[in-house]
Amino acid sequence: MPLPPGWTIWLTGLPGAGKTTLARAVQERLWRSGIMAVVLDSDAVRPVLAPEAGYGAAARDRFYGQLVALARLLNQEGANVLVAATAHRRVYRDAARMALAPRFVEVWVRCALKVCRERDPKGLYARAAAGAISDLPGLHVPYEPPDAAEVVVDSDREPVEAAVERILRQAPLPGAG
């Protein structure tokens, strides 16, 4: 008997917006409810899928294509997936939506650039200010906000637990709410 297909929740936003924090919090809440979910954090997955790749346009195109393919494979095997990835271009997220529909939800983790810079958990903004990074989304490379995300979280104003509750309540996925 085949497994029912899994679903994907893709959390997008500027670096430092809180995508990984929210993905882990959603995962924990789901686990407490008996629902398994895998987090694909782009920073953790990139060295595995694209160890030699840089951050230029072609490398990002390949990486996001690989990330979508991995999520799709996991979904086909019955796994629920939480993707925490900037995916700064709409075309990346639109491709994910097309490949993973109808069991795909986009969550825009919206956060003021000033707050992302203050948080700077990975030191990206500091390295960009020092000239060590020249292609950071939101600074050097435009971040294209979603046109129609199913859920919008203002992570600079909304507590994590309230955001998790809203994501799970508003995500139109079987067993996610």
What does this structure look like?
By secondary structure, the protein is α/β, with parallel strands linked by helices. It has a single domain, classed as P-loop containing nucleotide triphosphate hydrolases (Rossmann fold), CATH 3.40.50.300. The protein has seven helices and five strands, in the order βαβααβαβααβα. The chain has helices at residues 19-32, 42-49, 57-76, 90-100, 113-119, 124-129, 160-170; strands at residues 8-12, 38-41, 81-84, 104-110, 151-154. Strands 2-3-1-4-5 form a five-stranded parallel sheet, with helices on both faces. Helix 1 crosses helix 7 and helix 3 (57-76) runs parallel beside helix 4. The longest helix is centred in the middle third of the chain and has 20 residues, at 57-76. The chain starts with 7 loop residues before the first strand and ends in a 7-residue tail after the last helix.
CATH topology: Rossmann fold
Anisotropy-based shape = globular
E-strand count:
5
Number of folding domains? 1
* Measured distance between first and last alpha carbons: 25 Å
Report the radius of gyration as a whole number of Å.
16 Å
Reading the helices and strands in chain order gives EHEHHEHEHHEH
Q: Strand arrangement, largest sheet?
A: 2-3-1-4-5
CATH architecture name: 3-Layer(aba) Sandwich
CATH superfamily, by name, is P-loop containing nucleotide triphosphate hydrolases
**Tally of individual helices:** 7
Q: What number is the mean pLDDT?
A: 90
CATH class: Alpha Beta
Describe the largest sheet. Answer: 5 strands, parallel
Low confidence ranges: none
Q: Strand content of the residues, in percent?
A: 5-15%
Task: Return the structural class.
Answer: alpha/beta
Helix % is 40-55%
